[in-house]
Design a protein that fits this description.
The protein is elongated and about 85 Å long. Strand 8 and strand 9 form a beta hairpin. It is α/β, with parallel strands linked by helices. The protein has eleven helices and ten strands. Helix 3 packs parallel to helix 4 and helix 9 packs across helix 10. The protein folds into three domains: 115 residues, Cobalt-precorrin-4 Transmethylase, domain 1 (3-Layer(aba) Sandwich); 111 residues, Tetrapyrrole methylase, C-terminal domain (Methyltransferase, Cobalt-precorrin-4 Transmethylase, Domain 2, 2-Layer Sandwich); 47 residues. The N and C termini lie far apart (61 Å).
Length: 303
């Protein structure tokens, strides 16, 4: 998407290339260490400190690009305790950069509590975009790219996972039509695909993307049932993104619509009945309401 302002940026319009006071969220490569922008490297090189999930992972990226900077670990287990000290430094004008081990910060990674606290404290928060596994997998999948819903990781335990999938199934029955995007550990891919097939339908189109931007990058495409069996026969390795295409549009016949309206109209007002049936079957509310009016008129007509 482009506009006239992207052709010849006016002086002072583009963000400065170097570090800025406040908190800067920087996207890092998801595999290929060269997938990082000059702006991101400038922010990393000029920061007072870089907050990262695992200093060992981030240090490899910085070494690749000749950057030496102070690294502070920030992860799920220490983020809450680190907030007061980090906010104090940010209020004093420090330039801190937040990265995750790979990809865009906060996307199924730590940092949300810090960002929310910084915003609440009036600290400037900046962002430098870059690699994101979910978006890359989406555009490679062959599934409808929009709308899409990024879910992240499903619960690891079967009971909680199945309850979450039942919630998505109910949302689809209420009209949700979007490509669903999940992250998953490779050793759970087959089990999760089987659960997706059981909940959302074995024939749903889907994709499994792994090792994106790396040497063994692969995108498997097919139905959920086929992908589940494939993950059993040939278990994927490396980081995995699972994608499920939108629920199919099932045409509702006139007789079925009339039956659904008749049941709903016996229990609620005409307007509420029409709204309920439209929501449940993903139909235009106006057309369902018009049919409800016709049925009501027919019922009042003498035989």
């Amino acid at each position: 998407m482009q506009d006239a302002s992207t052709d010849l940026p006016a002086a002072g319009i583009s963000p400065p290339p170097g570090p800025q006071p406040g908190l800067t969220l920087v996207a890092t490569p998801i595999g290929n260490l060269d997938d990082i922008s000059p702006r991101a490297l400038a922010a990393l090189a000029g920061a007072d400190a870089v907050l990262c999930e695992d200093t060992r992972v981030t240090s490899k990226l910085l070494a690749r690009h000749g950057i030496s900077i102070t690294l502070w670990p920030l992860h799920d287990h220490n983020e809450e305790a680190q907030l007061p000290g980090l906010l104090a430094r940010l209020r004093d004008g420090a330039a801190l950069v937040l990265v995750s081990d790979a990809g865009t910060p906060l996307m199924s990674d730590p940092g949300f509590r810090l960002v929310r606290a910084a915003i609440a404290a009036g600290v400037p928060v900046h962002g430098i975009p870059g690699a994101n596994a979910a978006v890359l997998a989406l555009i490679l999948s062959g599934l409808p790219p929009h709308p899409f819903m990024f879910v992240g990781f499903l619960p690891a335990k079967a009971g909680a996972r199945d309850a979450e999938l039942a919630r998505f199934k109910a949302m689809e029955q209420a009209g949700l039509s979007a490509t669903l995007v999940f992250y998953e550990a490779p050793h759970r891919a087959a089990e999760t695909l089987a659960a997706l097939a059981a909940s959302l339908g074995e024939t749903r189109p889907a994709a499994l993307a792994r090792e994106l931007t790396k040497r063994f990058e692969e995108v498997r495409r097919g139905s959920l049932a086929v992908l589940a069996q494939g993950a059993l026969d040939d278990p994927p390795r490396g980081e995995v993104v699972l994608l499920v295409g939108p629920a199919p549009n099932e045409a509702m016949g006139q007789a079925s619509l009339d039956d659904a309206l008749a049941v709903a109209m016996a229990a609620m007002s005409l307007r509420d009945a029409a709204a309920s049936v439209a929501l449940a079957h993903g139909l235009p509310r106006k057309s369902v309401y018009a049919r409800a009016l016709e049925l009501a008129a027919e019922k009042k007509r003498p035989d």
